[in-house]
Amino acid sequence: MFQRLFGRERHANRAITEALYAQIVAAARQTVFYSDWNVPDTPLGRFEMLSLHMFLFQHRLRGEGGVAGEVAQVLIDEFFMDVEHSLRELGIGDVGVPKRMKKLAKMFYGRTAAYDDALERNDHDALVAALARNVRPDAATWPQATQLAGYVADVSRRLAEQPTESIVSGTVAFPVAKTI
């Protein structure tokens, strides 16, 4: 029991969590999103891309149960700890962090519901609309939302092809976003 709680397994699980989260973050930070597709290179814009990639990861593991379900939950926890850490780095104080975390969690889960619905119905137009509404709420039109929606659909398909065993072992491969 103590070996499991404090020993090698705990360190191995932490290494898997860190590896998966690093791969999700790297996918979310691809330059093309900010330079070519006009995602705002701001804390909120980066939150949107990280949320999107976290959603795609969670969407892949949804319904898997067992170890995959545990990995999915640990990654969500890691995501929200990272968001909280980022808020603190931005200078948000102890009093303001919980309020902002609640708002960001609500935003995350609202977005995941919209993206999930669009992907499940294979509704490209709904996905484009959800991405435009969430990523660029300040823009009357955002033509690059179509490219981002194509990327999201491609990532969803490619993640579905990856073996669950590889993912829960710490390897998830997000495709490179390319300009069309």
Automatic annotation (TrEMBL):
Residue ranges occupied by any Ubiquinol-cytochrome c chaperone domain in the UniProt entry: 36-174
Signal sequence residues: none
Highest taxon listed in the record's lineage: Bacteria
Matches recorded under PANTHER family: UBIQUINOL-CYTOCHROME C REDUCTASE COMPLEX ASSEMBLY FACTOR 1 FAMILY MEMBER (PTHR12184), UBIQUINOL-CYTOCHROME-C REDUCTASE COMPLEX ASSEMBLY FACTOR 1 (PTHR12184:SF1)
Family in the record: Belongs to the UPF0174 family.
Protein name, as recorded: Ubiquinol-cytochrome C chaperone
Species, as recorded: Mesorhizobium temperatum
